[in-house]
Specification:
Layout lengths: L19 E5 L5 E5 L23 E4 L14 H15 L5 H11 L7 E3 L4 E2 L7 E3 L3 E3 L4 E2 L2 E3 L3 E4 L2 E3 L3 E3 L4 E2 L4 E2 L4 E2 L4 E2 L8 E2 L11 H4 L1
Parallel strand pairs: 4-7, 5-8, 6-11, 7-12, 8-13, 11-14, 12-15, 13-16, 15-17
Antiparallel strand pairs: 1-2, 3-10, 9-10
Helix pairs in contact: 1-2
Amino acid sequence: MTAACPLNAATPPAAPGAPFARLDHGDGRAARAERHPEPPSPRPGNSSAAAPVTDAGFDRKGTGHGMLNADHVGSRWKVALRHIALTVIGKLPGTRFKSRLFARLFKIRMGRDVGLACGVLLDPYAPSMISFGDNVIVGYESKIFVHAFTLNRQRVRPVTIGSNVLIGAFCIIAPGVTIGDGASIAPGTIVSRSVPAGAIVTGNVMQVRKRGARAAS
């Protein structure tokens, strides 16, 4: 009499977490079949999934190296291509056509009569988070950033520039800054906090906040 094929019999399930399941062939031999392990959950700071950037931006701590984990903010390839395009267009002289081109290609909120001089760089990580009011001048080689990376932090905040604003050459506008209507920024200024309407901002003084152990000894 022919015995029933043991392969048709139900095989007891493997215990949860067991790395292997044993298949009994009924003839005294046992085959070990490797069970497919579940993919490991991503560790903080190593995930390659980009976080959605909203109009309000975000401030995330504990991300590990902010620059090397920049794919949390956006696709590296998209950022690189935007950087090339923004740099090339930025080399054009300040015209209404240039401002309209920025607004159309990068969804930048652009008011009327906005002049962006030659060399002005807008942040390639999220240029749509930059907005301009009416009647604005941004001087030669000035830069406007919406992102800031540190060794364990990633910060993305919008920049708002009001109407009738003059920003001189070689200025740097930091993430999260709002420049009020009628303000004037002197050339070479690093604008690290918001500027009230009608203010005149000048000067750039470096300050040593804390001395290292070697310097103090």
